[in-house]
């Protein structure tokens, strides 16, 4: 059995210089906070759709999303009304 050897890479600390505070805030971004989310009513239920992502499986042409799923790259924070 071979032992694992930790190799120090001099470039690794400079590859991803993301402050810890910023990375934590990015993890908290959810679809429900995005300005592109659309709320559609069907009967007594509400469904949420992304205004940017398209789907050929829904009648309105928009992709269904879950509100608590992590946000995608097109995330824009919703402004207060």
Structure description:
With 81 residues, the chain is an alpha+beta fold. Helix content is 15%, strand content 23%. The chain is built from two helices and three strands; from the N terminus they run ααβββ. The protein has a three-stranded antiparallel β-sheet with strand order 1-2-3, with no helix packed on it.
List strands and helices in order, with pairings.
Blueprint: H1 12-15, H2 20-27, E1 37-42, E2 45-54, E3 62-64
**Residues in helices, as a percent range:** 10-25%
Question: What is the straight-line distance between the termini?
Answer: 62 Å
Cα radius of gyration in angstroms: 20 Å
Low-pLDDT regions? none
| Average of pLDDT | 76
Please give the number of β-strands.
3
User: How would you sum up the major sheet?
Assistant: 3 strands, antiparallel
Order of helices and strands, N to C?
HHEEE
> What percent strand?
15-25%
SS-derived structural category: alpha+beta
Number of contiguous helices: 2
Shape: globular
Short description:
With 81 residues, the chain is of the alpha+beta class.
List keywords for this structure.
2 helices, globular, alpha+beta, 81 residues, 3-stranded antiparallel beta sheet
């Amino acid at each position: 059995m071979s032992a694992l050897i930790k190799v120090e890479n001099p470039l690794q600390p400079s590859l991803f210089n993301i402050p810890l505070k910023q990375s934590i805030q990015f993890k908290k971004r959810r679809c429900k906070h995005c300005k592109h989310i659309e709320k559609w009513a069907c009967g007594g239920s509400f469904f949420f759709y992304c205004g940017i992502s398209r789907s050929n499986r829904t009648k309105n042409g928009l992709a269904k999303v879950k509100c608590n799923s992590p946000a995608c790259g097109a995330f824009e924070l919703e402004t207060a009304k």
